[in-house]
Amino acid sequence: xxxxxxxxxxxxxxxxxxxxxxxxxxxxxxxxxxxxxxxxxxxxxxxxxxxxxxxxxxxxxxxxxxxxxxxxxxxxxxxxxxxxxxxxxxxxxxxxxxxxxxxxxxxxxxxxxxxxxxxxxxxxxxxxxxxxxxxxxxxxxxxxxxxxxxxxxxxxxxxxxxxxxxxxxxxxxxxxxxxxxxxxxxxxxxxxxxxxxxxxxxxxxxxxxx
Length: 210
Known about the structure:
Layout: H1 6-13, H2 19-26, H3 30-35, E1 41-44, H4 59-69, E2 75-78, H5 84-94, E3 100-104, H6 108-111, H7 121-125, E4 133-137, E5 140-141, E6 155-159, E7 162-163, H8 165-173, E8 180-184, E9 187-188, E10 205-208
Parallel strand pairs: 1-2, 2-3, 3-4, 4-6, 5-7, 6-8, 7-9, 8-10
């Protein structure tokens, strides 16, 4: 690998996205460490911090440190637990460069919108205005997220969510150019998952993933 040109090494390493593997690459050599900022995707699996020591670096800070080293991050997938302040700090760094984001919000007791935390985690999603694809896992939507329009969003997936009908209406109004939407095991307080169609926009494919 040492004889490879820098550009080729960066291209090879750019296909690595698991945060654990990226961290391992940083330890191989200085040259490898200098190449990892050119990765395009970061994935933080659910069990990444299971054995994390309580007296070690805060997981939110670990994610922020890794995100901050990337020159232009296009995809961020976070299944590991995180806080609202952590999410806000990452998006302040890479929000506008992201084209895809996948978040898993499992701790409904702390992270749901009923807590009236301002801004909520879902509110913060709106800061990534250039998203083309957004996937949210296990969210509770009891009040509308404070989103502006996502002009580039084509794919929206909301999996294992609970939501109020009027909230879902607002969500789809923020995504006027969807071509595909899907929901897995939706639990509505009212009617079933129903996309909103306006004007002559392309009709999304309404799919359920069970």
